[in-house]
């Protein structure tokens, strides 16, 4: 018997620093990339290989929002408050999860790396928000 699966992009939920993110762009709307490999290896002059664990779990999360998304305003406020305050007010938790599955990405220390590029033209375009995460935990299912 063949298994049948169904995918619905609406099943993904993103909450950043207490703000539910909404108004995602068409096509790809979340991109997650870890900075380092989980394990590295090194070879000695005699051919001896050693594998060692990397403790670097930093990641960059980019999400694309429509220009009309209400989340753009909230993220802008958060970024500007973070830049203007000395205490890291813009650092908070990031949670990305599939509400009908088991896929989860979460980190407790995340911040907006920079404001999105803005292009003004005939079409409204999208806003790409880049979030840095100090330690991102992932479970993909």
Outline the structure in words:
This protein is 11% helix and 42% strand. The protein is built from one helix and ten strands. Strands 1, 2, 3, 6, 7, 8, 9 and 10 form an eight-stranded antiparallel β-sheet that branches. The longest helix is centred in the middle third of the chain and has 15 residues, at 70-84. It is globular, with a radius of gyration of 18 Å.
Number of domains: 1
**Structural class by SSE content:** mainly beta
- The helicity comes to 10-25%
* Rg: 18 Å
Helix-strand layout with pairing:
Layout: E1 12-16, E2 19-20, E3 30-34, E4 39-43, E5 49-53, E6 59-66, H1 70-84, E7 92-98, E8 104-114, E9 126-133, E10 137-139
Gist of the model:
By secondary structure, this protein is mostly beta strands. The chain is 11% helix and 42% strand. The strands form 2 sheets. Strands 1, 2, 3, 6, 7, 8, 9 and 10 form an 8-stranded antiparallel β-sheet that branches. Strands 4-5 form a two-stranded antiparallel sheet.
Notable characteristics:
141 residues; mainly beta; Elongation Factor Tu (Ef-tu), domain 3; 8-stranded antiparallel beta sheet; two-stranded antiparallel sheet; 1 helix; 10 strands; 11% helix; globular
